[in-house]
Design goal:
By secondary structure, the chain is of the alpha/beta class. The strands form three sheets. The protein has a seven-stranded mixed sheet with strand order 5-2-1-6-7-11-10, with helices on both faces. A two-stranded antiparallel ribbon has the order 3-4. The longest helix is centred in the last third of the chain and has 19 residues. This is GlxA family transcriptional regulator.
Length: about 325
C-alpha cells in the first residue's frame, strides 16, 4: 500500500506526512514504555496489523551496536549508529532504573545536545526526562514524571520545573511522560499530528486501547486518603502531597489547575466538603500519620517535614485532626504490628 493512498481526515484531505522517530535506550530502560511507544507507531504506519513502514519509520540508535539490557532483563539491539539527528522528527529517550549511575554514555549526551542544537524535538519517556535534565536540556521546559519519581527529580534538579499530576507534556521542542501506558498516549498524539486520526484509531484499536488520553489527564494514583471524581481536585490533591511541607500557596495551587482561588474553593467545598486549606492540612496530617507508623523519626523531625515550626504545634494539630496525640498513634501502630 503506497503512502499516497492515505489522507488526513482533518480539515479536508491532504497528504499524510511520514513520521520518523529515533529511540535512545538507557541502560536498564523500561521495556513496556518503549514497546508501547514503538508499537503505536508500527500499527499507525500501515493498515490493520501489517507492520509496514508506510507512514512512519523508527530506529533504535546508539553509540555502539551492543545489546542494551532492559530493567526486566530482555535485551534490545540498536538498529542504527548515531547519524544526523535532523533525519528524525523526534528523538525519544527511554529511561529506566534510577539506581543506574550512568544510564547513557558521553557520546549519547553529545548526540542529544547536537539534536537540540539542530532544533530536533526531544522526548523523555519514563525516567528519560532525568537523562535530558542531567544533560542540561530541560532548562526552559517543564518535566512530567511519575508521582513515584517526583521527589527524586526535585532533589536532583531543584532549579527545574516538574510536575507529576499529569500523564505527559508535549510542546514544540520537548516532551516528557510518566512512563507505562502513557507512552502510548504520547505516541498516539504524534500519530494524530503527523499522520491522521484514522491511523491513530487503527493503532489504538489493535492495542485494545479504547481511546488515547490527553496531556491534561491525571495520573491514575489515589491521593493519601480519598479519591474524588473531579480532575482538578485530584490534581490539586496530588500537588498538595508533593508540597507536603505546606509551602504551596492556595492561589498558586489554583492557578496550576487553571482556576482562580475562589473557583477552587467552590469546587473543593462541592466535591470534598472542605476548603482547599483544610484539605491541605489533612494531607499533611495524613503524611505525618504514615511516617509515625513506619519510622522511628523524632516528633520534631516529622513536624518540620510537614511544615510545622515546633513539635507542640504539630501535636496540637494532629490531636485535633485524629483525636489522639502523635505518640499515642505511634504506640498503637506498634502494638498492631
Amino acid at each position: 500500500m503506497r503512502a499516497e493512498q492515505h489522507r488526513v481526515a482533518d480539515d479536508g484531505a491532504k497528504q499524510a506526512a511520514r513520521l520518523k522517530v529515533g529511540f535512545v535506550l538507557s541502560r536498564s530502560f523500561t521495556l513496556s514504555a518503549f514497546a508501547l511507544f514503538v508499537d503505536t507507531l508500527r500499527l499507525a504506519s500501515d493498515e490493520q496489523d501489517r507492520s509496514g513502514r508506510v507512514l512512519a519509520d523508527w530506529q533504535v540508535i546508539g553509540s555502539t551496536r551492543h545489546l542494551i539490557t532492559s530493567s526486566c532483563g530482555v535485551q534490545v539491539a540498536p538498529t542504527s549508529d548515531f547519524v544526523d539527528p535532523s533525519r528524525f522528527d523526534y528523538i525519544v529517550v527511554v529511561g529506566g532504573l534510577l539506581t543506574v549511575e550512568n544510564p547513557v554514555d558521553q557520546q549519547t549526551i553529545t548526540f542529544l545536545r547536537q539534536a537540540d542544537a539542530r532544533k530536533v524535538p526531544l522526548i523523555g519517556v519514563c525516567t528519560g526526562s532525568f537523562i535530558l535534565a542531567a544533560a542540561g536540556l530541560m532548562k526552559r521546559h517543564e518535566s512530567c514524571v511519575s508521582w513515584l519519581h517526583y521527589k527524586e527529580f526535585r532533589e536532583r534538579f531543584p532549579e527545574l520545573a516538574v510536575r507529576s499530576d499529569r500523564l505527559f507534556n508535549l510542546d514544540r521542542q520537548r516532551g516528557s511522560c510518566a512512563g507505562g501506558s502513557s507512552a502510548a498516549d504520547m505516541a498516539a498524539l504524534l500519530v494524530r499530528k503527523y499522520i491522521s486520526r484514522d491511523a491513530e484509531r487503527n493503532a489504538l484499536e489493535v492495542l485494545q486501547i479504547e481511546k488515547a488520553r490527553t496531556p491534561s489527564d491525571i495520573q491514575p494514583r489515589r491521593p493519601l486518603y480519598d479519591d474524588y471524581d473531579d480532575a482538578r481536585v485530584k490534581a490539586a490533591m496530588i500537588t498538595m502531597e508533593q508540597f507536603v511541607d505546606g509551602s504551596m500557596p492556595i492561589e498558586k495551587l489554583a492557578a496550576m489547575v487553571g482556576l482562580s482561588r475562589r473557583q477552587l474553593e467552590r469546587i473543593f467545598i462541592e466535591k470534598t466538603g472542605m476548603s482547599p486549606a483544610k484539605a491541605y492540612n489533612r494531607v499533611r496530617m495524613e503524611r505525618a500519620k504514615s511516617i509515625l507508623a513506619q519510622s522511628k523519626a523524632p516528633l520534631i523531625e516529622i513536624a518540620l517535614d510537614v511544615g510545622f515550626e515546633n513539635a507542640s504545634q504539630f501535636t496540637r494539630t494532629f490531636k485535633r485532626t485524629f483525636g489522639q496525640t502523635p505518640s499515642q498513634h505511634r504506640a498503637a501502630a506498634l502494638r498492631a504490628h
